[in-house]
């Protein structure tokens, strides 16, 4: 078994993504959390790293305390977010925090149990991270088919701005703030939130799925900043991305992503930001005929 993970921000900005691995009582839990870029004028809980980075790091820390083989993923997550909410309330006490300023995130949480002749997977997904499986022969399965309907709205708005000559990312963000803030308020106020938020008004509207896969299947989870290689850049297909991650390693694909973004700097971007935090985790249970690469020297992009 091998676990490879990577997470980095573009340039010198704070990384608001997080990848984590928890091993408890025979369970292996893989977690990718993608913090949503703040649309507030300032930070309220953490003026150093920023509220979003504080949120994803605090959540992962609290989640690690709640994971138990006898507890469901939904129950563990709710305990963790309740603890984070109490912490946030203490840190922001006395401040008037707009609802759109409350941090939120997307996450994909994959729980793996080993059976004698199969892998038992349980998925708990909020937002637009991605999870793929690659079997020993290279066949790729989308474990959580999902398309974010709001992304089309954002891309259309960005395209309209570009058509009017608005290419600077800072100016683009300012023009889009009313739309983005309205969206954040709606997400926080939803009766069954589809993203990870501080104060859910009801049960989370998570996409939950259980399935069994062949024992030689690898699992890849990633944030939308990493899978820009497929959507929206179109540099490869989902199948190609998954297979190349397994054969070449995550750092190779990260270098390709950043090189493409650097080369197209100044061009009209298909998203609010020209580049985003990017994270991925690849779990490989055992060698297959796909795994032909030799030992790879660690790079500065790899994070343990």
UniProtKB/TrEMBL annotation:
Start and end residues of each PPM-type phosphatase domain: 12-253
InterPro entries recorded: PPM-type_phosphatase-like_dom
Residue stretches of biased makeup (Basic and acidic residues): 290-304
Region (Disordered): 284-304
Highest taxon listed in the record's lineage: Bacteria
Pfam families linked to this entry: PP2C_2 (PF13672)
UniProt name for this protein: Protein phosphatase 2C domain-containing protein
Taxonomic source organism: Massilia haematophila
């Amino acid at each position: 078994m091998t676990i490879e993970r990577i997470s980095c921000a573009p340039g010198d900005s704070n990384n608001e993504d997080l990848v984590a691995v928890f091993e408890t009582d025979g369970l292996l839990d893989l977690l990718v959390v993608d913090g949503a870029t703040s649309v507030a004028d300032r930070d309220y809980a953490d003026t150093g790293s920023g509220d979003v980075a504080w949120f994803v790091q605090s959540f992962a820390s609290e989640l690690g305390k709640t994971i138990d083989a006898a507890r469901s993923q939904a129950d563990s997550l709710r305990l963790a977010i309740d603890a984070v909410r109490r912490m946030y309330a203490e840190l922001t006490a006395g401040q008037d925090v707009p609802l759109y300023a409350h941090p939120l995130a997307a996450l994909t949480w994959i729980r793996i149990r080993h059976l004698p002749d199969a892998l038992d997977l349980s998925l708990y997904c909020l937002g637009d991270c991605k999870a793929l499986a690659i079997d020993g022969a290279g066949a790729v399965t989308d474990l959580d088919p999902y398309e974010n309907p709001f992304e089309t709205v954002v891309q259309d708005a960005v395209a309209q701005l570009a058509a009017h000559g608005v290419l600077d990312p800072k100016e683009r963000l300012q023009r889009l703030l009313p739309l983005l803030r309205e969206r954040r308020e709606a997400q926080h106020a939803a009766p069954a939130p589809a993203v990870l938020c501080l104060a859910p008004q009801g049960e989370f509207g998570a996409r939950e799925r259980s399935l069994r896969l062949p024992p030689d299947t690898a699992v890849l989870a990633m944030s939308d900043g990493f899978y820009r290689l497929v959507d929206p850049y179109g540099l490869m297909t989902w199948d190609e991305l998954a297979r190349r991650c397994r054969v070449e390693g995550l750092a190779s694909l990260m270098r390709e992503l950043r090189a493409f973004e650097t080369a197209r700097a100044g061009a009209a971007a298909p998203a609010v930001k020209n580049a985003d935090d990017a994270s991925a985790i690849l779990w490989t249970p055992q060698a297959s005929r796909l795994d032909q690469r030799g030992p790879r020297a660690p790079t500065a992009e790899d994070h343990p």
